[in-house]
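Standup, Tuesday
Yesterday: got the pipeline producing structure tokens again.
Today: sanity-check two examples.
Blockers: none.

Example 1:
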Amino acid sequence: MILGWANRFAQVASYLTTFGLFGVFLLALLDSAAIPLPGGPDAALILLTTAYPRWFLLYVLAATSGSVLGCLILQAISRRAGRRALERFSSERRERVRQLIDRYDAFSVFVASILPPPFPFKLFIITAGVFHLNAFRLAVAIGVGRALRYLLEGYLAIHYGARAGELFARYYPTIGMGLAGLIILLLIFRHLFWRARPSLS
């Protein structure tokens, strides 16, 4: 039964890819709105960019905007559902993510949007909805994070063609963790700099 549904979702993903820009947009929207499709927007973007490299930035824009809209839909659903939306996650995970959002606001979602699976990105979106994180700040954070991810995929597709998916799967976990770590270090440095600044004057 599960395998049958997986095959159907894979067929849907392949079919949507044939619609080009609109297909990439829809795949990203559905994937971000908690309807995972095998390969999703990542595979579609790599495939289409390999075939039509001149459209690279448009595919990135379509995937990014679809992902942002899908996440905002998931946030809105979670806002209406309240704490019931979090029941399928462990209490320890829920509390950890809530504390991160309370402390770092949309910046925590930005970092989460960069990190590779199995990092629980959707838990951040659902928590943002339950605890009423500002939708505009959430959209900006997701947009910047996802754009970085899709730009990297497009770059690999242009330079490595069909091998891009394999290279992305192999190296993105390291790149994503490294990029997130660098961003966090820059934030810490900025925070320490602004704390020390009054004492220098």
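Example 2:
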Amino acid sequence: MTMIRIVIAEDQALVLGALAALLGLDDEIEVVGRAVNGQQALALCRSASPDIVLTDIEMPLMTGLELAAALKEEGCACKVVIVTTFARAGYLRRAMQAGVRGYLLKDAPADSLAAAIRTVHAGGRAIAPELAIEGWGGEQDPLSERERQVLRLAGEGKSGADIAKAIHLSEGTVRNYLSEAISKLNAGNRVEAFRLARDAGWL
């Protein structure tokens, strides 16, 4: 019997443990690594060569969507399945663009997770039914990747100087990116722009 080798990326320890325990009960699935952020998960995917990485979206250092995009860019054979609480069309759209093969919600029945993993491992897609219908509706994401990055850091409460230092840009360039993002979202300030973009699933 060929085992399906899984890496799990989840920043909440209880959820990480529960997912690992649940999948560990399946005779055809082997959990070969656990990560608490996207950067750890990327390193594990490089070293452990899993068949599938099961990841949350919102994690420290690197989000699940950024992880998927990085794996796609590297040409990694590992397939990505996202398990999240966020039923947002913007997230699903970005996930598909990043090559994600599965997108499930955390309140889905437990047996649907293993079934989705098998589907993806066999070359198929597994999208939560409630998202498959609505996933391509809604507004298109107007933000560039850099605007998204700057806005996310601003939403964490970082100053322009802190953001500039974190992503190696000048403060003036950071201000320009923030200004563009605020304008595109028709927001009054960076806080409102962050909220609008987050609620739409664009961050």
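Quick observation on example 2: The radius of gyration is 18 Å. The mean pLDDT is 87.
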